[in-house]
Amino acid sequence: MKADVARLRSAVSSWVRTSPGTHIWLLIIGVTSLVVAAASQDLETFLLHRTSSNIHQLNKQPIESLLISGFWIENPSSFLLYAGLFELVHANVERWIGTLRWLFVVAVAHVAATLISQDIVMLAIQDHSLPRSMKHVVDIGVSYGLAAAAGVLTYRVPRPWRWGYSASLVAFFAVPLCTGGTYTDIGHAVSVTIGLACGRPLSYGLPTWDLTRAEEALRRRRRRRGRAKAAPGPPGSPGEPDAAFGEAESPGSVRRTDAQGRPRSRRPRSTR
User: Do 203 and 155 meet the contact criterion of CB atoms below 8 Å apart?
Assistant: First the structure.
């Protein structure tokens, strides 16, 4: 039991060490979610609007709003869902292409999707298609970076299954966009496009998931377990390795001895 716990602890520690950016980001989101959950209604409204990357905040403090908005989620009850998606998507991409390249894709997607979607909102306000209050809309979250990482993950999937994954991914974000999507849906579409465009050059030469090799390794592991469970026979029994010579003796075989009756040793064979 203690050995199993130690192996599990070692595996978890290795997983976290090889994807530090994902888990630092997730830790910050957990802290900000606790702040929002413990805040009063007025304080929550102030925090969400103050940390948004909406038109008002982008005009007032563009760099700060773009940076801070990626560390908050509007609904703290969604934290567990995002934690699972981070482990499934972000951690795998970071471990695969490296922390710096992963951070590059996520940052570019978050900034580009935010600016493009808010520019479209501004054009709609000027065209009187949207009210002017949309300048102060709450625009925070981590979904743009998550969508970009999911796009990069396409190139991690082996080819027979890659097309199905990519088609499902595109449909997941394209259907809301084509059925009267919001500015957030536009941002998601931009992020996925960036992930798909950057994933190929950033992952060039890196291995994909080899499912055939994984299945073969599993079969070899099962065969080794089956041989380990087979109980060995008693020493000196027919067909079992002899302790002195390291080889099996067939029934009725006679050992070779010298003039004094001692076992005669064999000349060692060449290793060539």
Answer: yes
Residues 6+ apart with CB under 8 A from 135: 54, 55, 56, 121, 122, 125
Q: Which two tokens stand for residue 91?
A: 């951690």
The domains located in the chain, with CATH, are 2-202 (1.20.1540)
Q: Which pLDDT tens digits describe the chain residue by residue (272 residues)?
A: 777 788 888 888 889 999 999 999 999 999 999 999 999 999 999 999 999 999 999 999 999 999 999 999 989 999 999 999 999 999 999 999 999 999 999 999 999 999 999 999 999 999 999 999 999 999 999 999 999 999 999 999 988 899 999 999 999 999 999 988 899 999 999 999 999 999 889 887 777 775 555 556 666 777 777 777 665 555 554 444 444 444 444 444 455 555 555 555 555 444 43
> Is 156 in contact with 202 (CB distance < 8 Å)?
no
